Automatic annotation (TrEMBL), chains A, B:
Catalytic activity: L-aspartate + 2-oxoglutarate = oxaloacetate + L-glutamate
Name assigned to this protein: aspartate transaminase
Signal peptide: none
Claim: Iron-sulfur is one of the keywords in the record: no
Pfam family, one: Aminotran_1_2
Annotated source species: Seohaeicola zhoushanensis
Domain Aminotransferase class I/classII large: 64-392
InterPro entries: Aminotransferase_I/II_large (IPR004839), AspAT/PAT-like (IPR050596), PyrdxlP-dep_Trfase (IPR015424), PyrdxlP-dep_Trfase_major (IPR015421), PyrdxlP-dep_Trfase_small (IPR015422)
Family: Belongs to the class-I pyridoxal-phosphate-dependent aminotransferase family.
Keywords annotated in UniProt: Aminotransferase, Pyridoxal phosphate, Transferase
Amino acid sequence: MNAATKFARLGTDNAPGQEARLGEANGAWLRGEPLPGRPVDFSHGDVDAHPPTPGSFEAFSAGVAAGGAQAYTEYRGSAAIREILAERLAAFTGAAVDARDGLILTPGTQGALFLSIGATVSAGDKVAIVQPDYFANRKLVEFLEAELIPVRMDYAGVASGAGLDLTQLEEAFRAGAKVFLFSNPNNPAGVVYSPAEIAGIAELAGRYGATVIVDQLYSRLLYPGVTYTHLRATMPDNVVTIMGPSKTESLSGYRLGVAFGDPAIVERMEKLQAIVSLRAPGYSQAVLRTWFDEPAGWMADRIKAHQAIRDDLIAGFRGIEGCVVRPADAGSYVFPRLPKLAIPPQDFVTALRTQAGVTVTPGSEFSPHATDSIRLNFSQDHAASVAAVERIAALVERYRA
Amino acid sequence: MNAATKFARLGTDNAPGQEARLGEANGAWLRGEPLPGRPVDFSHGDVDAHPPTPGSFEAFSAGVAAGGAQAYTEYRGSAAIREILAERLAAFTGAAVDARDGLILTPGTQGALFLSIGATVSAGDKVAIVQPDYFANRKLVEFLEAELIPVRMDYAGVASGAGLDLTQLEEAFRAGAKVFLFSNPNNPAGVVYSPAEIAGIAELAGRYGATVIVDQLYSRLLYPGVTYTHLRATMPDNVVTIMGPSKTESLSGYRLGVAFGDPAIVERMEKLQAIVSLRAPGYSQAVLRTWFDEPAGWMADRIKAHQAIRDDLIAGFRGIEGCVVRPADAGSYVFPRLPKLAIPPQDFVTALRTQAGVTVTPGSEFSPHATDSIRLNFSQDHAASVAAVERIAALVERYRA
């Protein structure tokens, strides 16, 4: 396949944050007048409403003051910072982290995701991917000219856990998938895999000799009453865990992520990082010194603030007749399935943006079977996001089939 | 090819900056005692000796203060910053730059290089690459499972220009290479392509419909008397130019690069960036506001300081009998070819590190035909680097064949 053909499949027009590149809607099919209200961009979190961890800028400044030693680190990141993080990540996940050989710092969690897949998947390989899941997973597999085997997750059909179809996962392994990639908590649905589901994944991957890449980006923003199970504490080998301080901690402007686990895979990831971006930003790496070391009570307050927004938005969506929605177990996503509309889903997303000042990500980015859903990142101003969901409800009625 | 096999070829053990991961030399074959002196790491520039552009940290701080608007930009980078840069890059290169569609900000110049190759080369494609040239060029082609066609450059055999073999370049195009990738000034040799060479590249690429990616990372650090020709001013289509403020401007700790040119290729690069790292660091992007807007006289002083170091190091290498060296036309690399030694080149590099406190990059990273050369980045403390070259000369005598 030539490069032009390959890239024609990798659409990013509807990717979160790229709305600025979309033209204005041709108004002919729009119904009624625009709805007034403060615009809300639910495509990503609002780091002005939920500001970065205290001390992060000071840590960056100290990195600049350190000069060349912080600007130029090993490709896998500063050894001193890896030492600090390895201990904290081990405590958080319940299994040892090898600071020298089993941990790499990356440009954003996206960087960690690319490197882990790029280091384990080649052209023609089969990769098991959950549907729905983070939109880049599928695109990464396509860029590498590998083959995707979808595994269903019926998050709306279960009251707890993710609703992963373990039978389909086994079929994927039996069909030759050597890598399984999933996010936990799930992006976009916000659900957390149950202990039994994690045990099932570990058992199957072990039996079929598969590598598992688990994206735990939102695993710190856990709501009360939810049990979170770290795969790496259950499955010692062939696992790469991905995290980063971009979301809960609002440090996205520094572009930082980490991946940790199997040293053989981390070594390949560093080789790939060497030719893709060399290293995570030198000075920014210093900001990781603040990670898992937030002021007392800070994380609890952040979780409480997000829980309150979540509950109000869920109530808003439940007020829409025929809308199916499940509260997030963790993280800041909500993924409501809308009732049947008279216009195509993509047009409704356009109507939301042009008529309601509300930017959401279409469900088709996450699964071909989720075109009737929309994803909202509710890490936003509380009042503005509640009002925005009221406008979504109003537009659903306007365009209802 | 499976991922493990593919990565076995992508060695980074001898890549610049990775020396910390090499073990200590087994001393049995080492001759004589260590030489005293301040250690110098010539594998990359010393940003403490040549500090970042004035105002860069203040620009970063303003980016943090701007909050979400600077943290989250389009994947191709902030539109406002692209507007500013497009004008300055057009003035520098002598051809218009399309701020909206023809320019992308990347995590380091390495990011721009990966994206431009990843966006134009697929598995099985043929890519023409200069020998010697930047070590990552070859590795990128290998990662993409494409085929490398080498094109010779006899920089030591000519007094000016790069000594590119245009006949071999035409043969590469005739053999099916659809992409030609080269650095100008050349890394590692520091030579600048002559106007006739650039015209020849443009003519051949045009005739064979090839895309050209030109890495101009060091093109601002130009020594007096050298004419620099921008390919993009000669060849309007199918060219991507790569630059960044990491070197001359010592802004490497912020990890910033840019690529500009053909909008169709830039669009693909953005799609790839979306899945590789999302975007260049949000806050760091703000530092680009200082680029090409340095205080009056600052760039002239920086060039003068580097010219003085260059001249002293060249004199040092010319004092070694049998050493072949050509002064850089631009940039901060020197690539001396050493006389015949009694130990393998890789062992001599190890001896330099362990016995002389001098870190250099082996020539084999840049070309299989340059194993007898070493690369030094002379953006260093002046006195320390002169003393380090004296120690190199002493070790050459100690290990001379």
